[in-house]
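The authors assume throughout that readers already know how a fold can be written as C-alpha cells. For illustration, here is how one protein appears when written out as sequence plus C-alpha cells.
>
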Amino acid sequence: MNKKDRNALNAFRSAYEGAEMPELPDELSKESIVNMLDQKEVPKTKRRKKYMPLKAVLAATLAIAVIAGSSIVYEGISAGVKLQKSYTSQAIKTASDYKEIKEIFEKINKQNNNTTWFGSRLFGKATADLAQEEGLGNASGNNSNVGKTNVQVEGVDEADIIKNDGKYLYRLVFDKLYIISLLPADKMKVAGTINIYDDIKIADKKTSDVTQSGSEGSASGDQSGASSGRTDAYYPEYDYLYEDGAIDADEFYIYGNTLTVLGNVCDFTTGKGYKTFVNIYDITDISKVTLKKQFLQDGLYLSSRLIGGDLYILSNFSVNLNSDEVFMEESCIPTSGYSDNIKTVPANDICIVSEPDYPSYLIASGLNLDNLKAGANTKSILGAGENAYCNAESLFVARTKCTYTSNVLSDVVAEIYTPGAYDCLTEIYRFSLDDGKITFDCKGAVDGTIDDGQFSMDEYNGYFRIATTGSDKKGVTSGGVYVLDKNMKTVGKITGLAKGERIYAVRFIGETAYVVTFEQTDPLFVIDLSKPESPTLKGELKITGFSEYLHPVGKNLLLGIGKNGDLNGTTPGIKISLFDVSDPKKPIEVDRRIFGGNSASRDFTTDAWYTHKAVMVYSEKNLYGIPVWASDYSSGIKELFLTIRIENNKIINDYLYPLSEDNTGYYSIDCRGTYIDDTIYISADRFVKAFSMTDGSLLGEIEL
C-alpha cells in the first residue's frame, strides 16, 4: 500500500470509527469493516477469498450506508434527502397556530446564520405557464378567426402582454396598457390607455431612499435579489424598481367587460419587500375605464390562471431573516386581501412542507371575477415551490429538494471516491379548485428535478404524470416519467432515459408522452402511458440540435421549435422540426428548417425558446409564427416575425415580416403576433404593425 492510499485509508477509518450507524448484520458491522480495511480476517465472511481494492471498499462502504436507509455517514453530515424507490402519499400538514410558524423561521434563521434569503421568479423559461391536456390550441377553440394566447388547456386561459378580442388589441408596455382600435388595419389608432401606476393603492406609495445596497430601506428585503451588491452608480436606470410604490406590471386578462392586470409593487415600508397586485378594471366603456377593485398579496407574482370567471394567483413571498426580532415576527405571516381590507392568512390555511429549509412561502389565492364581493380564498405553502400545473379541477405545486453528496467524507477520500453532485427529489402538493376556492388535498414525491416547468406535468383520466431528470451516485443524469394516482401515490414509472443527458422539452398528449433530451444529439422519446402502472418506451429518434418547445399539429404530427446543432452540440440558428409520430415505434423527422445557421457571424434567436406564449397559432390555416431577432456583426440587429405553414407533412416558408432595423444594439422587446381573418398584427413595446397574410404587404402601423 503506497503512502497516498494509506493516508486516505486512515482518514476514512478515523471518520468511520466515529460514525453512528444503524443496525446492520454482523458481516457489515463497524468492527468487520474496520478489520477489512486493515486486511484482517472478516468475521463470518468466509466466502470472500480476495480483498477488495481500496477504491471499491470505500464505494461499497458508502453504498452500505445508503442501502441501510441512513444518509448520515458521520457526525456533521446533513441528514439531507432520503431517496427511495417509491414514496408514499401523505396528507398535507397545516400549521396549528402562528407560534409554530414563527418557531420554524427561528430554526431556519439559526441554521442559515442569519442569512437573508430573497425570493425570485421560479419558473425559469416557463414563467407563468401551467397546464396541458388533450385538445390543445387557442383558448377560443378551433372555430375562431381571432388570434388568442397560445394556451395548453382548453378553457384555462393564461395571462399575457397582448390580447385581441377581434376589435381591440390590448397591449401592456411597462406600467401602461394601450387599447388599440384595429379595424380597419390602415387606420389603427390608440383608443385609450390605462396608467396602472396611478391606480396602485398601498399604505405609503412614495419615493424613498431604498435604492442603495445595505441602506436602511433595503434591509427590509429586496426579493428580486438586486439589492445584494447593487449600487445606483451601476444601475441608475432601474432605480424606479426599488422605490416604495414602484410597480412592475407583468401581464393581464380580458374576461367579458373586465380587464385584470397582474404584477408587483414595491412595499418596503411593511418589511415585506414586494406585493403582488391584481388591478380589476371595468372596460365596458373604453373611453372611461374604471378601477373596480385592487387585490394584494405578499410576495413576487409568479403565475396565474383564469378558469371561467375564477382567477387563481400565485406568488412567492420570502421572509427577511435579517430584520430585528420584532420586525421579523410581524413580517413572517403572509397577508392578502383587497387594498382596503388586507388580512393575515389563518394558520390553518398555511401548509408546512416536510423539513422546510427556505424562509419563503408559495401563496395561492382564488378570486371570482363575477362576484368580487365574495372576497378571496387564500392558501400558503411554507417552504415554497418552484413550479405549478393547473387544470380546471386541480392545482399541483412542485417543490425540489436536493442534498449535496460530493466530498462526503473528506477531500483526500473524495479523490478516490466522489459519488456525484446532488441527490434530488420533487415533492408535489395537490389542491382542489372550485368556484375560486382552494382546498388542500395530499402530497407525493418522485425522484429527480423538473426541467421544463409546467410542461413537465399533466393530469389525464385521474392520473398525474410528471417528467424529471435524476442522477445516480456518480452524477450521471437520465430522464424519467412517473405516474401518480389521485392520492399522489406512484403507481408506475419509466426511468433511465438518455443517460448523461437532461430533459429539455416535454409534451403530454392523451395517453402519450413526448420527451426531448439533449447533450450532443436530440433524442425524441415516445412513451406509451395507456397503462398507468407500466409506462412503456415505444420509440426513439436521434437528430442533431434540440427542441425547446413541442406543439401538436393534428393527430400524428408534432412541431418542434428549438436550437440548431451538429454532432458537437449547439450551433447558431433556430431549428424548426416536423415529426411524424403516427407510428410510435418509429417517430420520423419528416422535415426541418434552419434559420440563421449558415454563418458564424449571423445568428437568429427567438422568445419561443423561453415561453410558448410567443408562438402564434392559427389552426385553421395550419399557420405558426414566432418573433425573430437576427443579429449580424456588420449590420446590427433586425427584428422580424417569421411565419410557416404545415402542408402535406412539409414545413412551408410563409413570410418573414420586417419590423425594424437598428445597428445601435437596441431593439424592441416582448414581440407577439396575433390575427383577425387574413390580417396579422405584430406588436412589440414600441409599435403595432398590420400585414396582409395574402401577399405580406404592410397595411398600417402605429407607434406606442
